[in-house]
Amino acid sequence: MRIGLYPGTFDPVTLGHTDIIQRAMALVDRLVIGVAINRDKGPLFSLEERVAMVKAECAGIIATTGGEIVVHPFENLLIDCARDVGAGVIIRGLRAVADFEYEFQMVGMNRLLDASIETVFMMADARRQAIASRLVKEIARLGGDIRNFVPAPVADALATKFR
């Protein structure tokens, strides 16, 4: 069984994330969505809220792809999380050159920690490349329209947070 790990903070999950999830399903038999606790980033949504949002969005993807998706919170090293879930591949989404520079360093370190786990980069769909959770939160906080960037339930959750 080919198991892939798609890690992220998902604060909140965006249409860019769901695009990568849908496309990653064609590469693996089981996709584990690793929701990072990452206290250093100071997420807007709690871990429980982020996990629930990711699960809700993945339910529709599972219905259309027929694949298996597991949502797995984690706080340890990414490479250790990959080992914990049996992943042979880590899937990372790229939007821009700045993403690549960061990811390039991470891949090098992960390869030194465990060379048996590969990393696959997927470019975000051209319509989704500008979407970043950080920017979505800022637009929502200032009362802007975020419906083109996040699923409707996520837009509602953001509106509630900033009320």
Report on the architecture of this protein.
- This protein is α/β, with parallel strands linked by helices.
- It has one domain: HUPs (Rossmann fold, 3-Layer(aba) Sandwich).
- The chain is 45% helix and 20% strand.
- The chain has six helices and five strands.
- Strands 3-2-1-4-5 form a five-stranded parallel β-sheet, with helices on both faces.
- Strand 4, helix 4 and strand 5 (118-123) form a beta-alpha-beta unit.
- The chain is globular, with a radius of gyration of 15 Å.
- The protein starts with a strand and ends with a helix.
- The relative contact order is 0.21.
- The model has no long low-confidence stretch (mean pLDDT 93).
Note the topology:
Layout: E1 3-8, H1 15-24, E2 30-36, H2 47-65, E3 68-74, H3 78-85, E4 89-94, H4 97-113, E5 118-123, H5 133-141, H6 152-161
Considering the chains and any ligands shown, give keywords for the structure.
163 residues; alpha/beta; Rossmann fold; five-stranded parallel beta sheet; 6 helices; 5 strands; 45% helix; 20% strand; globular
Q: Give the distance, in angstroms, between the N- and C-terminal Cα atoms.
A: 45 Å
Helix and strand sequence: EHEHEHEHEHH
What structural category do the secondary elements indicate?
Answer: alpha/beta
User: Which fold name fills CATH's third level, the topology?
Assistant: Rossmann fold
> In this structure, how is the largest beta sheet organized?
5 strands, parallel
CATH architecture descriptor name: 3-Layer(aba) Sandwich
**CATH superfamily membership:** HUPs
Shape: globular
Oligomer: single chain
- By DSSP (H or I, 4+ residues per run), the number of helices equals 6
- What is the residue-mean pLDDT, rounded to a whole number? 93
- Poorly predicted spans: none
Percent of residues in beta strands: 15-25%
**Radius of gyration based on Cα positions:** 15 Å
